[in-house]
Amino acid sequence: MAAIEVTNLVKYFKNTKAIDDISFSVGAGECFSLLGPNGAGKTTTLNILSTLLKPTAGKALVAGFDVAKQKNEVRQSIGIVFQEPALDSKLTGKENLEFHAMMYGIKPSIRDERIKSLLQLVELTEKAETLVQNYSGGMKRRLEIARGLIHRPKVLFLDEPTLGLDSQTRRLIWDYIKKLNKENDVTIILTTHYMEEADFLCDRIAIIDRGKIVVNDSPANLKKLHNTNSLDDVFIKYTGNTIRNIEEREKIW
Q: Where do the ABC transporter domain residues begin and end (predicted)?
């Protein structure tokens, strides 16, 4: 069963085609990554799937719901961890989770136990009463993940989940993501610039370039196909090694 089904998806920003007739599916319980250069269309695709943008054409189903016609149902089925932190720094970690739980209408009798469980999952129990403004970058990211799981979504979107974190913290976040995916059976779709991250976490990757998906396969198969041990080599084979002048595109994609 597919957790996500994308068919002939197109997105224009004025005269710029950001997404160019892409199709792919993500199975329930899979960890799937969208990879691509800056401005390739990764975040635009993620924003469409999470109902933050409306597609120009084509169709996308998330947990069986149409992202254009059934936005509320999609939003109840997904969790999102944005690239930019969206926490209230003047609240404690626990208060951030409580507020998010109330936004989803989770009953107090359920809410308290769920928050306790999530804080344990991301190892923030001892920092639950600490103001988020005093959290490290890694702690904030872990709290973001907990917040995205408060309503027990079927699908979790992660946009650059370890961007700007040190190597040790990145690996810790990887372990949380792997546990969520394999032990909690949460379908995960992530974007990342770190090839080793996609290689470690994902069952399949799709490389998107200039709005088109150029390949969709498992990391192992792609490395074998191109006779390399490095997913970076695979990425360059499909996208080239030229730094492109895409500053204006980056602003809207």
A: 4-235
